[in-house]
Amino acid sequence: MGQQVNDQPGKEAARTEGRSAAAEEDTNKPLYGVTDVPPWYLCIILAFQHYLTAFGAIVAIPLILSEGLCLQHDRLTQGSLINSIFFVSGLCTLLQVTFGIRLPILQGGTFAVVTPTVAILSTPEWKCPAWTQNASLVNTSSPEFKDVWTTRLTALQGSIMVASVFQILLGFSGLIGFLMRFIGPLTIAPTIALIGLSLYDAAGAKAGTHWGIATIICVYIGYRLYFMVTWKHSHGIFYIDKILLGILVSWFICYILTISDVLPSNPSQYGYLARTDVSNAIRDASWFTVPYPGQWGVPTVNLAAVLGLTAGIMCSILESVGDYYACARLSGAPPPPSHAISRGIGVEGLGSLIAGAFGTGNGTTSFSENVAALGITKVASRAVILLSGVFMVLMGMLGKFGAIFTTIPAPVIGGMFLVMFGVIGAAGISNLQATDMHSSRNIFVFGFSMFSALVIPNWIQKNPQFLNTGVKEVDQVLHVLLTTNMFIGGFFGFLLDNTAPGTKRERGLFAWSKVDPEDSNTLESEEVYDLPFGITAFLSSYSWVRYIPFCPWRGHSSQHKSEDKDFVLPWVYYASFHLK
């Protein structure tokens, strides 16, 4: 009898724990699944929310590239680039959600391609003429100036289009699954971290135009972080807009300081670039514009640029695959099967091809920020993301919309870069959570990869004459690759991790055992990944379809279930889910 009495508290605690776990599981389930359609007003609000979440990263890319393209004093063309990248991001989102992975994932520009692009544009052959750095000498309407930047942009266009073919083939051929078996956390951690860390020069140059203004956005975001952290579940919409609201607050302060003449009006004085009236881009921009392929001229191809951009696209692929798994979990969908991942990567390759053709100067990738937003809003409907894609297409057609964002003061952009690039660097390093960092092997692999990726590019840039093989094209290729930080870090990480002895658990490849893919609050069946308009039902009548890597087949789940689980190194799923 005494024993039974003593057991009562333990049983009650177990029941309480079970109820708590069940309640937590219910809380984690999305309110609207992938195939659900929320009320029209909620669709509009959340679609605009996703658009705002991606805003900062999409706008930042043309602003970074404008320096290397010699466009820092041509705000009107910068606005056109912003319009183009929003327009293409919307098209790629519609394409991905309809025919690609079919999960609620937003598409946009990728910083993985920005890094090699900056390295390409910094080579001696691509450096901007000295006169383009002086605003008083630049006539933006002159044929000479136009030839300077269109030559660089069209070469970038063609090179991105050629590099995107690699991604298309890798996706639609199904080879992505094979390659992912050799890529672990110790490869991807330095690669992604160096995307953010390698852009410190651009962040410093912008922030240095007025450190006081640049600090405002950092302080504001820090305040929001501390203040909203306890309210993020009930005020999620405001919580995930820290960067955008930080930009608006800093921008407004610059406007007040401009109209009150606190900021200097002399272009040669420190702080002048913090003014909001240094450009007439809004007045000169047209109300409506429709970006189109080849709008800057006929694309050309540069071998060195193709190889450098291919390295960036490979990194983008790794990020996207992780996003697919994280998005599936947050959406209540089953883990994506191999045909869906192959199709998703292939469609992203098509998106990069489209981006190159339209002349955005960048490719396309899945946005992790928007995947994280799914966990906050609890709305995983792809109808919302489709509407968000429509918003981006429409915004990309408003000429004055793009021009508005070219008037963001330089120090505000610098403050935004300090936050965004720092987060990217930290996100890359966080992939190491799946590895055993008490291991001297792993510490050496990661440390050597990171430090080499900082030392080698810096030395090559200071000693460009060292690369002199006698063949100009070879010299260009070596210069681009050896000055691309993430390529060096990823190369050493891949080489050392796959050759140095180490267990799967030590390398982080066994971390998937701690995450059960079946335990995902699944609300949908695998049919969520089927092609639309009855295409899957039509193809299922042909047995040969099962041999096409990107086509769904009705017998796919039962016959290839084990293959799908091993499609991608599970650490990618593990790390991406915890990054939210």
From TrEMBL:
**Superkingdom of origin organism:** Eukaryota
Print the keywords alphabetically. Answer: Membrane, Transmembrane, Transmembrane helix, Transport
Region of interest called Disordered, as start-end residue ranges on this chain: 1-25
Could you give one GO CC term from the UniProt record? plasma membrane
Question: What PROSITE patterns does this protein's entry cite?
Answer: XANTH_URACIL_PERMASE (PS01116)
Q: Which residue intervals are annotated with compositional bias (Basic and acidic residues) in the record?
A: 9-18
Q: Which InterPro entries match?
A: NCS2, Xan_ur_permease
**TM region positions:** 39-65, 85-105, 155-179, 186-205, 211-231, 243-263, 296-318, 384-406, 412-430, 442-460, 480-497
Where does the record say this protein resides?
A: Membrane
Q: Which Pfam families match?
A: Xan_ur_permease (PF00860)
Similarity remark? Belongs to the nucleobase:cation symporter-2 (NCS2) (TC 2.A.40) family.
User: Per its record, how is this protein called by name?
Assistant: Solute carrier family 23 member 1-like
List the source organism. Answer: Echeneis naucrates (Live sharksucker)
